[in-house]
Amino acid sequence: MKKWFQSFLAVTLFSASLLSGCSQEESSKTADGRTEIVLSGWGGNPTETKLLQQTIRDFEKKNPDIKVKHDVIADQYMDVLKTRLIGGTAADVFYLDAFEAPGLMEAGVLEPLDKYVKEDFDMEDFEKPLLQAFQHNGKTYGFPKDYSTLALFYNKEMLEEAGVEVPKTWNELQEAAKKLTKDGVYGFGVMPELARLYFLAESKGGQVMTNNKASFASKEVSEGLQSILDMRLNDKSAAQPNEVGADSGIEMFGQGKAAMVLEGNWAIPYLADTFPDISYGTAEVPTIGKKNTMAFTVAYVMNKESKHKEAAWRLIEYLTGKEGMKTWTSKGYALPTRKSVAKELGFADDPLRGALVAGASYATVWQDGPYLPIAQTNFNNQFLSAFLGQQPLREALKKAQKQANKEILINE
């Protein structure tokens, strides 16, 4: 990764030097004299797209000297973004997933935002773990626009029929899953991947990554993950979606093939649209000694090479400010990262979203240094075989860790 950083920066600086003689200010002015800035992100569903477009229009009304060009990168977002950054053609402002943030923060291609922030922006209003995901070496490189945690989704009718209470601890979940497994229905639907199981992997004191090296082959990580294998291989109370003909955990749940799953906010509109008759509830993820869950978040960040940094900051400030965030998250497709907005919109007390919002203050963000993407790929490849009973868990993790660290060494 460091080798990539060095070549990345060299090419970026060279490109910038070639462009220094060009009139970037003039080339990005509209016919009516407004400053045009570009906002890049991936696409969303039609409702989300309309909400973002409305938020941008509201910003332009309040900032009549700025025109925002919304650029949608439909496929291979990070590959396209990195190519544009290297080529000097990246947008002024763009989405950045927390998972990918460490690499770009270390690369030095993002503009630190602290100097732009004024007191009335109220940084304390952001959920702390979500904001920290975009901070590095004492600097803030992005402000989170939305997020989702994981919560326990449970089928009310199945639990009531089986006489099972909503589990509050992981041991209770395991026992409940056994009672709920019958007639082709599994008690627990599992996505056997690191993004969903990361908090469980570290629940016994182990670390997935240590000093930017994979360290998940430890005894502690194996102990943290063992319960998932026990549920599938011993209790026969857990399965992954493709074992019942589903493509995802929430589809498995919606089809009535799993009584409980761990899913995020995205599942709520999906169930309303696809399985409107299912009776379900949500609860915070059952505790394993302490409360924990996963959080997935995305920030708006500024291109360090932007020629319109003041205008770019004004856009970020509005989009992640209270007014802009309220518009963007108003329909519940995304959860607001500001506590005040979540409260104002009623999400904190919502019977379905409340558990997701509650988890934001203590969640583990899906992020762990610049080499987690490498570690994830190798972990998932080997963990699945252990989940299916094809090899012992510890052996699978040792293989995955060895290969991951070999690839990390090459990229350092």
From TrEMBL:
It comes from the Bacteria. PROSITE patterns: PROKAR_LIPOPROTEIN (PS51257). CDD domains: PBP2_UgpB. One of its GO terms (molecular function) is maltose binding. One of its GO terms (biological process) is maltose transport. InterPro entries: SBP. GO terms for cellular component: ATP-binding cassette (ABC) transporter complex, substrate-binding subunit-containing. Keywords: Signal, Transport. It holds the Pfam family SBP_bac_1. Belongs to the bacterial solute-binding protein 1 family. This is ABC transporter substrate-binding protein.
